[in-house]
Write a structure and sequence with these properties.
The complex is a heterodimer of chains A (279) and B (446). Chain A is an alpha/beta fold and 279 residues long. Chain A folds into 2 domains: 145 residues, 3-Layer(aba) Sandwich (Rossmann fold); 120 residues, HUPs (Rossmann fold). Chain A is 46% helix and 20% strand. Chain A contains 10 helices and 10 strands. Chain A starts with a strand and ends with a strand. Chain B has one domain. Chain B contains 17 helices and 2 strands. In chain B, strands 1-2 form a two-stranded antiparallel ribbon. The two termini of chain B are 38 Å apart. Classes of the chains: A alpha/beta (279), B mainly alpha (446). Chains A and B meet through helix 3 of A and helix 1, helix 2, helix 11 and helix 16 of B.
């Protein structure tokens, strides 16, 4: 059962959705929340190519950006703590100075689940967008991660779709989800996408059998489709009105993903519903 | 009589320019301290000084002394212009409409040659950023500011950009740069035209998007009162500098001789004007401009090494210029420009001016790299010097490291929450806009 959730705070609307969803999860599971705001001082103060006479201007610029980042962090923590108080959920804010990916990966070891917005930009002082942090977390996280898109009313809904391909990552994701308490009171579906319908059915059935000892009944789906894996899963999720999708993240090597593409990437980029991922 | 300059003597100069470019990137903390800059300068200057005093004896000592006076004059002018521009503050509530932005950039294009590209940048960047504070996207405003105000504007007088002042110190007449008016007008006009179109298109797009807070895009940004200029007395000191430098350049030789007396009078006069500016400017004006001595001290620390290490390098190029394959004006324009874009443009200008001396000499020894006045008066040398001047000054805009004010403007913009491109992002901007324009300049003028 989830007892502690780490929420990565940041100013985007998807981060806002992530906070509200995390509060919902905490209320459901009786968990505590920790709101993490990051001041990316290493990247702000990193060396830069500059002309003669630029050092003092860089120093002044760095100080101003760090001060601005600290102010944002303090504001986000204050807002997070107020929201949690209003929702009656125990919570604590935390400000960390460091590179975002490293800071989040270090903090997440102390929590059962980490939640962040899909479009969160933790390097907001120096970069327009921050896919790098998100990808680093999804590749290196040792604990489950929930990625939340920008939605008006974030909620996990009453139906969950588990995408199962038999990989170690998928097994870990399925097992940790089963133990999290999030399956309670929800309808669970396990789906495998494959060109061979029989093979897909057998694989999905194995997934269902893994949930059985945890007392979680689930339905089997084999998906044979001309669409890509990502689009097939989306189509099934829409059909089932799923509010959450569970899957293993980056099950294959980076080299293979480079040539064949990554289902995780595609799902994270396009999913209209929250994703529960584990590497 | 000493022989030709050995090739190895050029090494410290080349290495020093490379270190100035890469050390801030890879050893930023180390390079931040002026003491460390002086250590690097000293380490690379030492072999040069040993060569000059050891191999060239009295002749080398004279070269070092002459260079020391050049350095002092150079720093006196930079310091004076920096102090005076730091004492002027443009205040008032402005709205960042395309017309206002165009006015700012046009003013900057004119001012750059009067108070230096750094001075014009310091004076205009903060008011321009305040005026555009409510625009959702103003990156292009700052990028074109760097192109125009921080670089292309400084072509018309020796006060405009350090390379041209170095040329002036080495004998190029004060009014010689006036002949660069056609290139100056062409480039600045073209950039202003492109900017105006881009600004209008981006503003039209922005107006179609609803603002999060439903505010008016052009509501007055702040309560800063009517438009006004603080520190106006500095305009008088600025006029003093322009007149003084012109007078020294035009009459100093006749009245004071070409000796160190002329340089001494120049240095004392410039320092005096800087002191007048500093002590007659209200501290509040300096405070608003965030004026400190730190940038000019940093420039002084770095240029000690530049001036010493370039002594044998310039002699080498003047001796062997014609054999290096760069012989035509267009080649000088692109070569000096290409190097100015990645190394500081002041030493690059002198490098190619010396090379041009060697080319124009064509085997004779009539022209000297120590006196560029001869090159400026030579029928072919003049064409080469025009190309070098244009290349060094204009192409300093291609990267953030090509000219001093570039990074300064970027840093100030980021403090005002303008999202500036990174090093390579900015290079994409300059390759898309400046390089094709310089291609036209090369075809038309060289």
């Amino acid at each position: 059962m989830i007892k502690s959730v780490l929420v990565c705070l940041e100013g985007s609307s998807s981060a806002e959705s992530a906070t509200r969803l995390a509060i919902d999860v905490a209320r459901t599971c009786g968990a505590r929340l920790a709101g993490l705001a990051i001041v990316d001082e290493p990247d702000i103060r990193a060396g830069a190519a500059m002309g003669i006479g630029g050092s003092s201007f860089k120093h002044e610029r760095d100080d101003a950006l760090v001060a601005d980042a600290r102010k944002h962090a303090a504001d986000w923590i204050a807002l997070f703590e107020r929201r949690c108080r209003e929702a009656g959920v125990p919570a604590q804010g935390l400000e960390v100075v460091g590179r975002p990916a490293d800071s989040i990966l270090e903090e997440m070891d102390g929590h059962d689940l980490t939640v962040f917005g899909r479009d969160a930009n933790f390097r907001f002082e120096t970069e327009r967008e921050d896919l790098q942090t998100r990808d680093a977390i999804l590749h290196r996280a040792t604990r489950p991660v929930m990625v939340v898109p920008d939605v008006a009313e974030p909620a996990l809904g009453s139906t969950v779709l588990i995408a199962y391909d038999g990989s170690n990552a998928a097994k870990r994701a399925l097992t940790s989800f089963g133990n999290s308490g999030l399956a309670q009171g929800r309808t669970i579906h396990v789906a495998t996408v494959d060109d061979n319908g029989a093979r897909a059915w057998e694989m999905a059935n194995r997934g269902v059998q893994m949930l059985a000892p945890l007392g979680i009944p689930a339905s089997v789906h084999n998906v044979v489709s001309l669409l890509s894996n990502v689009d097939s899963l989306f189509a099934l999720a829409t059909e089932l009105k799923a509010g959450l999708m569970v899957m293993g993240a980056f099950a294959h090597s980076r080299l293979r993903n480079l040539f064949a593409g990554s289902a995780t990437h595609g799902l994270v980029e396009k999913s209209p519903i929250p994703l529960y991922l584990q590497h | 009589m000493t022989g030709a300059t050995p090739t190895w003597a050029v090494g410290p100069f080349v290495l020093y320019l490379l270190l100035i470019a890469v050390l801030p990137l890879f050893l930023g903390r180390f390079w931040e301290h002026n003491r460390n800059k002086l250590i690097v300068a000293a380490a690379l200057s030492l072999p040069v000084l040993v060569y000059l005093f050891g191999n060239k004896g009295a002749e080398g000592a004279v070269e070092v002394l002459h260079t020391a006076f050049d350095y002092a004059s150079f720093m006196a002018l930079l310091g004076a212009l920096f102090t005076i521009s730091g004492g002027i503050c443009l205040r008032g509530s402005l709205i960042g409409s395309p017309a206002v932005n165009l006015l700012f950039l046009s003013m900057g294009a004119l001012l750059g040659s009067l108070i230096g590209t750094t001075g014009a940048s310091v004076l205009l960047i903060r008011p321009l950023l305040r005026a555009n504070a409510r625009r959702g996207y103003s990156t292009h405003v700052v990028v074109f500011f760097i192109f125009i105000v921080s670089n292309a504007s400084g072509l018309l007088t020796p006060l405009g950009d350090p390379p041209l002042f170095l040329g002036f110190l080495r004998g190029v007449p004060f009014t010689w740069t006036f002949r660069l008016f056609r290139q100056w007008f062409f480039v600045n006009f073209a950039l202003l035209a492109v900017f105006t179109v881009m600004d209008r298109v981006l503003l039209a797009r922005e107006r179609k998007r609803p603002r999060r807070d439903n505010s008016d895009l052009f509501a007055l940004p702040g309560d800063d009162g009517p438009l006004r200029l603080e520190g106006r007395l500095n305009l008088l000191w600025l006029l003093g500098i322009v007149s003084f430098v012109f007078a020294i350049g035009s009459f100093g030789g006749r009245l004071l001789g070409e000796s160190y007396l002329r340089s001494t009078v120049e240095i004392v006069g410039l320092v005096g004007l800087a002191a007048l500016s500093y002590f007659t400017t209200a501290p509040a004006v300096h405070e608003r401009n965030r004026y400190t001595w730190a940038p000019i001290i940093e420039v002084a620390a770095v240029f000690v090494g530049v001036f010493i290490t370039m002594i044998p390098a310039l002699s080498y190029l003047a001796e062997r210029g014609a054999t290096l394959g760069i012989v035509r004006p267009a080649q000088f324009f692109w070569a000096s420009g290409a190097l100015s874009s990645v190394l500081d443009n002041a030493p690059t200008y002198l490098t190619f001016a010396s090379l041009a001396t060697g080319v124009a000499n064509a085997g004779s020894n009539l022209l000297s790299a120590a006196n560029l006045g001869g090159l400026a008066a030579h029928p072919f040398g003049e064409k080469l010097l025009v190309a070098v001047s244009c290349g060094s000054v204009m192409m300093g805009a291609i990267t953030y490291i090509g000219n001093g004010p570039n990074f300064m403007v970027k840093a100030i913009a980021e403090q005002h929450h303008v999202r500036m491109p990174g090093f390579f992002g900015y290079v994409l901007w300059s390759f898309a806009i400046l390089v094709p324009l310089f291609g036209i300049v090369s075809g038309v003028f060289f």
